[in-house]
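For the sake of transparency, this paper describes our internal protein records without simplification. Such a record has a labelled line for the sequence and another for the backbone structure tokens. Nothing more is needed to write down the fold, since each code stands for a local backbone conformation. For reference, a complete record is included directly beneath this paragraph.
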Amino acid sequence: MELPVYGERERIGALDIRREGLYLVFRAELPLWDGLPHLWLCGEAGCVSLGLPEPRDGRLRLEKRLSRAACAALPRPLLCAVLSPERPPLRPAPTPEPEAMGERLIFGRRFIVFRT
């Protein structure tokens, strides 16, 4: 499974989610970013931090393994990931009317959501 990763107001990469044995493995390779940004995993019920991506070879990289018990605490359904130095609100803002057109308001910013 792949989730879009947003930074500021644009898509900057993807978060790859794979099952490896008893774990879900989250991997992302993103462009360098100023400061110490966290990678936040976001769903309709809120956001959780996956951690700080590590700068390596001119990119930011993150690999995180979560057990089934740890995954139970993740927001459902998963919508996207956000690279941001600030903690997003615990609950995203309510979805505005343009929902039918594939637009959502997440953390006060407008995103276009694609479902596959």
